[in-house]
Amino acid sequence: MNHDINITKLKLNCFRQSKVPGEFMLQMRVPGGLIDAKYISVIQEIAEKWGNGTFHIGMRQTLNAPGIKYENIDAVNSFIQQYIKDIEIDLCNADMESNSAGYPTIGARNITSCIGNSHCIKANVNTWELARKLEKEIFPSHYHIKMSISGCPNDCGKGHFNDFGIIGVTKPIYLKDRCIGCGRCVKVCEHSATRVLKLVNNRIEKDTCCCVGCGECVEACPASAWVRPEQKLYRVILGGRTGKQYPRMGKMFLNWVTEDVVVAVIKNWQTFSANVLHHKPIYIHGGHLIDRAGYQKFKEIILDGVKLNPEAQVAQRILWAETEYRANINVKPLSQHPSSGEPYTPKSSNE
C-alpha cells in the first residue's frame, strides 16, 4: 500500500478505507434518509464510473460506493459538488460552501430517521423534515455525534442506541361525545402500549401517569373519539451506543418537549463538546463525553438558554446500565475485582 496516503484525512472527507490497498468507499450523506429519486443516478454514476459497480446502503442511511481507487478520489469529489450543494446547503441550510474538495468532515454523522408521518400511519411527527432542520445545527462540525429520529415510540429508528434518540410522541385528545363505547382503544393499549385506559359506563377513563404517547388509541378508534392535537411533541433519549467494550441502551432525558426545544438543545451540542474536549475535537461517542462531564454538567450546558414548554419533563438523574467487558477475564473471574480479588460488581455510568 502507498504509505503516503493520509487515511485520517480521507476519512474526514467521507471516504472509508478498504481491505484492498489503495481502494476506498465514498459515503454520501442523506440527512433523514429521504431525497428525491433523481439523486439515485448520482450514486449510480459514481459506482459504475469510479467504483466497482455496486453501491451499499449504509447503516446510517448513507449512499456508499465501494471500490474507488485513491487516484480517482479528486474526480469523485468534484463530481459530488452539486449534490452537496443541493442537499446540505439548499435543502438543509447548512453553513458551508460546496466545492471540488468534497465533504469537509465526517464528525457529525448522518442523521437517520424512519419515514415518519409523511407515510406511516403510526407516526406522530414528520421525521425527515426535523432531520433536515437539525442537520444544519450539527454539520459541518468535527465534533462527533450520532442522532436518530423515530416517528413514534416503536422507535424503528433505534434512537435508544444513539447519542441522541428523538422520538415523536402525542397527547391524544378524547372527544367523549364521539365515543361509541366499543373498547377497541382499551384493547390496543393493553396489547401494544401501557394499559392506561379502561372502559367505565361506556366511556374511557385514562391514567395519564404512564401514557407513553404512542397514539395507538387514535389509530384504533373507529369513531375518531381519540385525535392527535396539532402540537407535535418529542421524547429525547440520551447516551445510547453500540460498541465492543461498553454497549448500552439510552435513557430518557426529555419528555413531552416541542420541536423548538429539540432544536435549541441540539444547537448546544457543539458548545458542550468543546467544553469537555477543550476545543480539540476527537472521535469519541457522545455518551462517553457525557460520562466525562457528568450528567449534571451536561444538563447545565445543553439546556443553557433553552426555553422549555409547560409540558416538558427533564430527567433529574440518569442511571445507565451497560455491559462491561474486561480484558483480563482469564486472570480473575468477573465476580472478583481485577486487582484485589474481592467480590466485584462492574461499575455503571451514573452521573
From TrEMBL:
Record-annotated 4Fe-4S ferredoxin-type domain positions: 170-199, 202-231
GO biological process annotation, one example: sulfate assimilation
What Pfam families does the record point to?
A: Fer4 (PF00037), NIR_SIR (PF01077), NIR_SIR_ferr (PF03460)
Cellular component aspect of the GO annotation: sulfite reductase complex (NADPH)
| Assigned keywords, A-Z | 4Fe-4S, Heme, Iron, Iron-sulfur, Metal-binding, Oxidoreductase
| Single GO term (MF) | 4 iron, 4 sulfur cluster binding
Instruction: Specify the domain of life of the species encoding this protein.
Output: Bacteria
What protein family is recorded?
Answer: Belongs to the nitrite and sulfite reductase 4Fe-4S domain family.
Q: Which PANTHER family match?
A: ANAEROBIC SULFITE REDUCTASE SUBUNIT C, SULFITE REDUCTASE [NADPH] SUBUNIT BETA-RELATED
**The protein's name in its UniProt record:** Sulfite reductase subunit C
According to its UniProt entry, this protein's organism is: Fusobacterium hominis
